[in-house]
Records
---
Amino acid sequence: HAKNNGRNRFQLYDTAMNAMAEERLQLETDLHHAQERGELVFHYQPQLNLESGRIHAVEALIRWQHPDKGLLAPAAFLSMLEETGGIVSVGRQLLLAACQQTARWQAAGFTDLNVAVNLSGREFWHDTLIANVSDALAQSGLPAHALQLELTEGIFMEDVDAAVDRIRALKALGIAVSVDDFGTGYSSLAHLKRFPLDVLKIDRYFVKDLPNAPANEALIRSILALCKGLGLGTVAEGIETRAQLESLRKLGCQIVQGYFISRPVPADQIIALLGRDWLQAFDLAA
Ligand code: C2E
Ligand code: MG
Ligand code: MG
Ligand code: MG
């Protein structure tokens, strides 16, 4: 009886595994066609400047408008796209789209708007990176200084000298470079000063327990002081509540991003956000 039970369990497990493998394979096949079908798009999430009360930049975040499954977030497919290497060609196409879109927003009157685009390690290290970025700028007419590329700490750990060279080459194009999710990886502070970065994004891990989280407040204060010393701008990520916004403002964070301000939205919803006076909207005007 026990044996039987065990075999049934094994068969159940086996069936479940097969179903998962099949689903994964199906998703991989779908993903293969997603790019040519135009199903991979950017949504944009605003970054608010708390001094001006205006949207300073938008971060482009990949979404998959799947024909049956609906809108998928990167967690559902990005690692697949990275493993297959498909991210390089998708990233190139989307980077151009983001530059063109931002050039249109600028032409609509939001001349100071910047756009931030994420790069995975695979894209950062690819031979065509510099050419892709420079083509996207040339084809879109977007001023280079309006583009920011977001890199994660992992990239900095692989080969420090080569990474420094590559970031220098990017910066030679006139664009800005930021370190994303700062404080969650293994990069050391000593490394930080070696990289010619412009902006550090404070991970939402430091924000989530605010207010009334003295240790996190101390960490954020230190990060802000460090950035000031190194001449880096900062963006705090993951602001979900008004209390978090207020406490970050008190700590001296100038630029904030998170669901409390806006979730990532399709491009056609951005203009409405760019026109808003946010300090007034949040009743934070001094
Ligand atoms: P990230 O660059 O750190 O982007 C921030 C993530 O946090 C986004 O998730 C965003 O939707 C989410 N987020 C924003 N505000 C809040 C908040 O207040 N609370 C919480 N809980 N989350 C918030 P998303 O869009 O799922 O993207 C996940 C990651 O996927 C990104 O993290 C980035 O590393 C990667 N990614 C996204 N788009 C691209 C892309 O086009 N290329 C590459 N290579 N990676 C991308
Ligand atoms: Mg990012
Ligand atoms: Mg981030
Ligand atoms: Mg992140």
Note: The chain has a mean pLDDT of 92.
---
Amino acid sequence: LGEGPLSGRRIVVTSGPTHEPIDPVRYIANRSSGAQGAALAHALAALGAHVVFVTGPAAVPPPEGVEVRRVETAREMLAAVEAALPADAAVFTAAVADWRVEGAAQEKIKKVPGGDLPQLTFRENPDILAHVAALGPQRPRLVVGFAAETQDVVANATAKRDRKGCDWIVANDVSPGTGIMGGPENAVTLVTEDGAESWPRMPKAEVAERLAARIAETLA
Ligand code: C5P
């Protein structure tokens, strides 16, 4: 680690889920193992990048050789990403919870058998990717988002790229039956300003290596 085409480059990678508390013992979250994010951070570091790895509570441990910033909620993730800037590139692999629970309880909510059920009110979380993509001078030169789709992958990813204002979208088909969600392999389509490129199904580590190589080419 240290030497390579990304030597001297600083790259922020978000990974894992976020947890949004309901009370001190309960939360809502998206499903995310953090496997693709950890693999990508490892691949970028292997090419010499200084990686700031901003991770929610993931199942997969962070790779060696990266600077780890642990967060729990989307708002903490946003703050950690902002604190990590400026950077040459930022890659958003995290599965951020779209909503948080308004007025999370400070004490454990007591279960009253047969009694009133708790009512949750949600608030929208910040969109970290869209926020960073819209920054002025602090905007990384390359901003990459991920998109988990179950249909019309290219059309949806292209629309997402426009909506989020990022440079690339890495889209994957997570339809039931693909075994991709939580599995060892991924099949991605890379959407850039030049169009969409579908890669064959391959191990997540290889997707990470290919993406890291593309990022290195682009930042060169
Ligand atoms: O809108 P959607 O969740 O499908 O977008 C996915 C992309 O946006 C991912 O790159 C994800 O990390 C990022 N994202 C984010 N903050 C959010 C929601 C999504 O950074 N609140």
Note: The CA atoms of residues 160 and 169 lie 8 Å apart.
---
Amino acid sequence: RAKENGKNRVAFYDAEMQRIVTERLQLESDLHLGLKHGQFQLHYQLQVDCQQQPAGVEALVRWHSPERGWVSPGAFIPLAEENGFIVPLGHWVLDQACHQLAQWQAAPAPFSQLVMAVNVSARQFHQPAFVASVEAALARSGAPPRLLKLELTESVFAQDLELIRDRLQRLKALGIRVSLDDFGTGYSSLGYLKRLPLDELKIDQGFVRSLHRSAGDAAIARMIIALAAEMELTVVAEGVERDDQFQALLAMGCDRFQGFLFARPLALAEVESRLHGVDA
Ligand code: C2E
Ligand code: MG
Ligand code: MG
Ligand code: MG
């Protein structure tokens, strides 16, 4: 009897596994088709300075699938990193962001001064042709490199540090900036900070979220801001939702702010109409 039960359970797991595998394959093929058929879009979330004036935007990818509706990046970026789809998607994102940056550059202020931040995943960064692809995207669009910023996460640094440094130096030689996203959540040592040519640290939203009720999180935010100042890096807080969080970060010396308090990620037309109301 026990044996029989076991058999049933195995059969159940097999069916369940089968279903999961089939779904993943379907998602994978839908992603490829989606890219081919123009179902991806960039949304833009404002980053503001201490006076709450727009300083730049972060490009965040969105997928509208005819079968699934809007799919958030959290639901497909991890899979895309695993199966390599992030490489063609990342190319598209970079191209699109550079194209938009060039358009804005040619418009009056505040558009012409916006810095465009683009997320780059570890898998993408480690492609041998990555630097060349950034260079090509800049050349194709005519976007000014000094207004392009790449956001990397610490997962990038899991590989050989010399190799990473060489790649970062070649990116910096193009004139672009490099930011370290979700800072404080990784497991790597802090040693790489002094060895890598970074421009910016981005305090992870986890620390910002509980700033007002956790002395520990407030201490970490304060430490990151002090560390950034010491190393002459700019520092951005992400996930700022409340005015008391903004005020606390401002008092700690944070330079840039991003979060629902200022703006949600918006479609192109929406972010443009928001910015039209701003005096340069
Ligand atoms: P991230 O780069 O850390 O982006 C910040 C995320 O926080 C975004 O989620 C944004 O919508 C969200 N956010 C911003 N302000 C607030 C706030 O005040 N409160 C809360 N609760 N959330 C806020 P999103 O757009 O869902 O993106 C999630 C992640 O997906 C990104 O995290 C990034 O790691 C990845 N991602 C998005 N677009 C791309 C892309 O084009 N390429 C790559 N490689 N990854 C991307
Ligand atoms: Mg980011
Ligand atoms: Mg982040
Ligand atoms: Mg994040």
Note: Residues 58, 119, 151, 181 surround magnesium ion (ligand 2) (CB under 6 Å).
